[in-house]
């Protein structure tokens, strides 16, 4: 089969590799029908995730059809159409029992495209299939379901839920890439009074407006002044969600919150950021970080099937699976291409 192989920082090749096979009774082999590229994949290619070894198949999000299952798999069968979650869960360790699947100590967590071969391929082996695959209802399209493999549960759990967004609150989202846009959609489920989005790219700020942002601000301007000016008493926002993953955006978020406010960091950071505790501790600030658990995926999938979650407009570019290299080129240059989320389909 063909797969996208990581060959060290800056090097990726769409090449022939051996087909995956069932190695454990809890495995399934899935034919990839739709797949996408994540900002985390770009971090890997920059060398920000040193655990990823040369020779690894990249990718951790997909929709596909089950081809084969191990003898221990009970909840999916060959022929089933499934969502491949970005997180694998053994289901038995203490973290899994607490629904903290991202911290699984039984061999799961974020392993696809990280510690084991991933989804940017014609087929993928999925460990712990019973706990890590989700059967899809017929009314949910491959493209819509693809957004629930990572960015929607990540924005909801790590951004909105960790940030404790609530009715009538003010929310600032720094970064209007796919994760930031998904944070707008999931934050609005809780009826905030105002959602302010900050980004450098005019095209992404336009996308933020379409997704429901009340105020959009270009990061080249006086962002702190403008955000505070949009809040009661000029105190700052209740919640600031970091959706970029660079020191400057994290540090900006800590300056945007009011006393007693919360910073929810979603972005994947490859470099240290400065934590100004001398300013934050007397302000009763709360900072949360986290890897997604995907415990919310069944709920979000149910909302999608019931037309209570709108993910339309998130995918801007579509490709065939064998156009993987072109898709990466487009996705990695959003300021030129206007790309948000890209989707690749089996042809």
UniProtKB/TrEMBL annotation:
Its cofactor is Zn(2+). Residues 10-344 form the Enoyl reductase (ER) domain. Keywords: Metal-binding, Oxidoreductase, Zinc. InterPro entries: ADH-like_C, ADH-like_N, ADH_Zn_CS, ER, GroES-like_sf, NAD(P)-bd_dom_sf. This is Alcohol dehydrogenase. The lineage of its organism: Bacteria, Bacillati, Actinomycetota, Actinomycetes, Kitasatosporales. Belongs to the zinc-containing alcohol dehydrogenase family. It comes from Wenjunlia tyrosinilytica. Pfam families: ADH_N, ADH_zinc_N.
């Amino acid at each position: 089969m063909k797969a996208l192989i990581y060959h060290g920082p800056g090097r990726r090749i769409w090449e022939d590799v051996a087909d995956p096979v069932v190695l454990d009774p809890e495995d399934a082999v899935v034919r990839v029908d739709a797949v996408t590229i994540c900002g985390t994949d770009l971090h890997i290619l920059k060398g920000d995730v040193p655990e990823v070894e040369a020779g690894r198949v990249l990718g951790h999000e997909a929709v596909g059809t089950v081809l084969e299952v191990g003898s221990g798999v009970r909840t999916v069968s060959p022929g089933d159409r499934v969502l491949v979650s970005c997180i694998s869960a053994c289901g038995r360790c203490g973290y899994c029992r607490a629904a903290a699947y991202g911290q699984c100590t039984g061999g799961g967590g974020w392993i696809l495209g990280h510690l084991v071969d991933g989804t940017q391929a014609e087929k993928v082996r999925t460990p712990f299939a019973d706990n890590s695959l989700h059967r899809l209802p017929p009314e949910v399209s491959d493209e819509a379901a693809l957004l629930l493999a990572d960015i929607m549960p990540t924005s909801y759990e790590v951004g909105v839920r960790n940030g404790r967004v609530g009715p009538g609150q003010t929310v600032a989202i720094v970064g209007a890439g796919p994760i930031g846009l998904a944070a707008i959609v999931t934050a609005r489920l809780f009826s905030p009074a105002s959602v302010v989005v900050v980004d450098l790219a005019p095209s992404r700020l336009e996308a933020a407006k379409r997704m429901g942002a009340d105020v959009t601000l270009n990061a080249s301007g006086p962002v702190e002044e403008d955000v505070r000016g949009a809040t009661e008493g000029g105190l700052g926002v209740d919640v600031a969600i970091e959706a970029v993953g660079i020191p400057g955006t994290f540090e900006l978020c800590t300056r945007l919150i009011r006393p007693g406010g919360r910073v929810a960091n979603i972005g994947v950071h490859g470099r240290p950021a400065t934590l100004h505790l001398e300013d934050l501790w007397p302000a009763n600030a709360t900072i949360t970080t986290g890897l997604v658990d995907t415990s919310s995926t069944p709920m979000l999938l149910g909302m999608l099937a019931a037309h209570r979650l709108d993910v339309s407009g998130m995918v801007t570019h579509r490709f065939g699976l064998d156009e993987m290299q072109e898709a990466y080129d487009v996705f990695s240059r959003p300021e030129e291409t206007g790309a948000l989320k890209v989707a690749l389909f089996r042809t």
